[in-house]
Amino acid sequence: MPGFRLNRTPAAAALLGMLAGSTHAQPAADFYRNATLRFHLSSEPGGGFDIIARSFAKYFTSHLPGKPSIVVVNMPGGGGTILANWCYNAAPKDGSVICMPLSTMPLNQVIAPEPVRYDANRVSWVGNLEKATGTILTWHTSQTKTMQDAMRRETPMAGTGKNSIIYQLLTLSNHIIGTKFKVVLGYSTGRVLAVERGEVDGTGSTLQNIPAMAPNWTESQYQLLAINAPKRLAKHANVPTMVEFAKTDRHRAMLEFWMAQSATARAIFTPPGVPADRVEVLRRAFDRTVKDPAFLAEVAKLQTIIEPDTGEEVQSEVRRLLATSPEVAAAIVDVLK
Fold it and tell me: What is the CATH topology of the domain spanning 134-260?
């Protein structure tokens, strides 16, 4: 209406405050029966991250009181900081918004703090869908077939942004192990096609994300050069761990610190300030969803294994990660700056 202005008199302000207060005072069960949940993802549409999150969303609200509707919103960019900053500072704090950041959200608070406008200790973690075992891989046509090859040969690798798991893993490898990966930034969902076409030799990922990231790939089409795990995995017994190449205790500690983000591989949080009873309802709905046979059957078709942690477990792991010694954190910051 032209010329209309809201007159924010003291009485009007008091009324708005009362309405907001009454919304927060509403019991969680009643709130979710009448709410539309918004699920914000720090990813482009169509990638492995997005596919698993949307599958989860289909079943999650059936475990909430009243089975509310849910809208999935993609908020990529900034290596995950765009979504994390928005969810922390601007999202409604009533429990109607949940967010799935990139796994680096707590880590970046320590090693890349400049764009960070959040505290991962103060959000309420709802749960984590899977662990994250970082890995470096190359396409079967690449001349770089081992980490030793990567130490001798400059190898172009597809990356997204500097705050991403891909850039960090490859850069740490260059500085700690002595590989010569050339990270080509700017790829998102297109990095799979870039690898297949030979624009780059490979990329970084997590073992758990490869089937969803590239469902058409078979294990014979790529080679795993290394994994960032405490010890070799039975399924990939011939693939060395990155810590096997660490030359000093400091280097080993840096790689172990980076491993700690496994707790937030596909984690979900809700902004600070959400009423405790609504956080509890969200957490228990998460716990039921990750045991839902229909959800598990769907993700099995995507060749993904759910390895869940409760919200309480994620909260504890994030607290531990952010309490890392300043010396180790400073060493990683120096490498990735």
Answer: D-Maltodextrin-Binding Protein; domain 2 (3.40.190)
